[in-house]
Specification:
binds nicotinamide-adenine-dinucleotide; Rossmann fold; alpha/beta
Length: 259
Amino acid sequence: MKVRGKVAVITGAGGGGQGRAVARRLARDDASVIVSDISERGGRETVRLIEEQRGRAAFFRADVGVESEVRELLAFAERTLGGVDILINNAGPYFHGAPFAKWMETIQANLMGTVYGTLHGIEAMRRRGGGAIVNFGSTSAVGHGFKHSSSPPYDIAKAGIARLTTTLAWLGEKEKIRVNCIVPDWVDTDEVRGYVESLTPKQCEEEGVPLPLTPLDDIADAVMDLIGNEDLAGRVLVWWTGQKRGLIPVGDLGYARLE
Ligand SMILES: NC(=O)c1ccc[n+]([C@@H]2O[C@H](COP(=O)([O-])OP(=O)(O)OC[C@H]3O[C@@H](n4cnc5c(N)ncnc54)[C@H](O)[C@@H]3O)[C@@H](O)[C@H]2O)c1
């Protein structure tokens, strides 16, 4: 799919991370972008940055964990711009603290937010005759016992998002709606960079922080590939920081080595 002239909706696009970077890239490539976030201030700043680069953008506040707000977000895009071609389910908050803190909020915003976006996005794209959805997972949900975040609900939600994506592969051929997922590792967002900079080199080593962090522009490139490549539907793109990005093979058993 060519992005030029298309309508794109992106959630969680008001922060100093991947959402804003992808929103700006979409606008730079001539899509009309609906920037959404729970933070009106952050979202409006993203719109300002896009307009400064002569792009087209509008803000709509939505909490992805609330289904009616996600429905309204997509309805706003259809009402004001005539339809939805691209949806980036980027919002996926990580709550620091005790392992079981914010259990429901984490699942609600990460997993259910992506489910709501995907279901209502599909409805809107059916009216348009096709489209592309990109979901955001995390390497902390890849594999077992190898590398987890300190938030079990976050990892559970992200595992669910990857699985949600692969279960919808058939939509690509049947309805020209391609749902794919990017699985980043340590990304150079304002928040992650701030955290890494607060660590000593020894702490970085102990935590296994892979440096340099994955640049935001590289993530935007990868998302644009997932949107643009018509061969990709129901695919999960895993990108360990410092390594080559790659797709999980179709038919992957996941647990190929059993004992
Ligand atoms: N940062 C990383 O290193 C990293 C690594 C792996 C995966 N991810 C995932 O990538 C995606 C983007 O993360 P990022 O760290 O680049 O941040 P980001 O800047 O893209 O997103 C943060 C924004 O999301 C908004 N937000 C939070 N909860 C929301 C909600 N319920 N509804 C709507 N907006 C909400 C915040 O207000 C903030 O502006 C997330 O899904 C995250 O889980 C991030």
